[in-house]
Write a structure and sequence with these properties.
Layout lengths: L1 H5 L27 H8 L7 H16 L3 H4 L7 E3 L5 E6 L6 E5 L2 H9 L9 H14 L5 E8 L2 E8 L6 H14 L4 H8 L4 H7 L4 H9 L2 H4 L2
Antiparallel strand pairs: 1-2, 2-3, 4-5
Length: about 220
């Protein structure tokens, strides 16, 4: 409406009224816990090549906390060994141009070995389709309350968690699990490419219960 007014298509000033507002509902951006990721990794998908590839590429995203455009195209050119002997993935993020260096954990190394350091080509739409089926097979069927707007009213409905899993869930899961593992925020931001801590903290998914559990380990609450 404002854009149309600027183009001279109307002169209606009512859009500036406080009563004139757009109802929005937050998107339920889930993350997978380490145990849920292990359940996906432990599935035997040898009889379904498409699911097997989608699962492996998704797991690479969980272990690197990168966007699909970056984690799905990792190849031998991105892998190097530091003087310390630690193998890392070295890449420039396509969206931002940020240079990031990610340590390779054993589970990630196993996937890279499986494909001889060159992940098979995959399309995001296909991975989104198959990873939901894989997550269901892994038993990730917890009911999640999802908000939406209908006829101007905010409502919610229950959805199986597996049906909310998508390629970007891998990046969010990686960042959140690193945070829960106690890795310093600034170090995780060096991997994800977030510029500010405020931006990063809005991105990860930490429940009130998880925050309470983290605080219980603090001397202030534990009495130690």
């Amino acid at each position: 409406m404002r854009a149309a007014r600027e183009e001279g298509l109307h002169d209606n000033g009512l859009i500036e009224s406080r009563k004139f507002r757009v109802l929005t509902a937050d998107v339920e951006n889930i993350y997978l816990t380490e145990s849920e990721i292990r359940a996906i990794a432990d599935l035997d998908l040898s009889n379904n090549k498409h699911k097997d590839i989608a699962r492996d590429i998704f797991l690479v995203g969980c272990y690197t906390a990168q966007r699909f455009s970056d984690y799905s195209t990792i190849n031998e050119g991105n892998i190097r060994t530091l003087d310390s002997g630690q193998r890392v993935i070295d890449l420039k993020q396509q969206k931002t141009g940020n240079h990031v260096v990610i340590p390779i954990r054993p589970e990630l190394q196993a996937i890279l070995d499986k494909y001889e350091n060159r992940l098979p080509k995959a399309y995001e739409q296909k991975v989104n389709k198959f990873i939901k089926e894989v997550a269901r097979e892994a038993g990730i069927t917890e009911k999640i309350e999802v908000p939406y707007v209908e006829n101007g009213e905010k409502k919610t409905h229950l959805v199986d968690k597996c049906d909310l899993v998508k390629t970007h869930t891998a990046r969010r899961s990686g960042a959140t699990n690193m945070y829960l593992a106690g890795i310093p925020t600034i170090a995780i931001m060096k991997i994800t490419g977030h510029k500010t801590e405020k931006e990063f903290m809005k991105y990860i998914k930490i429940t009130e219960e998880q925050t309470a559990m983290e605080l219980m380990n603090h001397p202030y609450f534990s009495g130690r």
